[in-house]
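Usage example:
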Amino acid sequence: MNLALLFDSDFVDADRAVLRGRRLTHLTSVIKVATGDRVPVGRVDGPMGTGEVVRLTDSEAELRVTLDQPPPPPLPLTLVLAMPRPKMFRRILQTCAALGVKDLWLINSYKVEKSFWQTPWLSEDHLRENLVLGLEQAKDTRMPAVHIRKLFKPFVEDELPALLAGKQALVAHPGTSVPCPAHLEEPAVLCVGPEGGFTDYEVGKLQEAGCQGVHLGPRILRVETAVPVLISRLFDSCL
Ligand code: SAM
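Running the assembly step on the lines above writes:
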């Protein structure tokens, strides 16, 4: 936690917030704050700044906050991701939030196991919890939007074309002939497949919708590796 993200419910006055639970434990056990110390804070979907510890007990830390800086710019990327295996999903969510992804679409694909959609990590509370961890890691405050689409074909035929309008549209697929572009300056949509990859039919549908197939070379990367490699290759702004 490189920044404590503050919610409306944390504020006890216009410039005072009280932290408990995980954030308090982090402040006391990891950062080892004392009264008078200043720590980086940010208001969810708002500005960032510092919080001075004005009261510290076993159960609460009260901060006097000054919020005077904007959060980092969002990544101009819509990420369309085949629903990952639950074991990896939390980490991928945190990574996406840390890299500045603000628009994430979780979609079905033939090789996404049906059981993946049953994971409790898809509940609103768990999605938020992991996005917060990513934002706090990277020092950002803007909460990403997560959209869930459990049917591939209606998503690709009815919704994807509008998402692609005016953007560079890509599907990362090993074995295609075009290398993934770099140094993009325009907004982009990037589709990333499941552990077993998109089927030829799915790649065809994504291409029909306007996505160009791109590759990252001959090494096949796990989804949790491919996502940050693709994003950092596409956008200098996330470096
Ligand atoms: N056997 C699968 C295939 O060939 O498509 C491997 C899928 S890979 C583990 C999961 C996803 O990560 C892929 O669908 C793709 O979106 C992305 N990916 C991984 N390595 C890649 C590479 N070298 N080039 C392009 N995309 C890659």
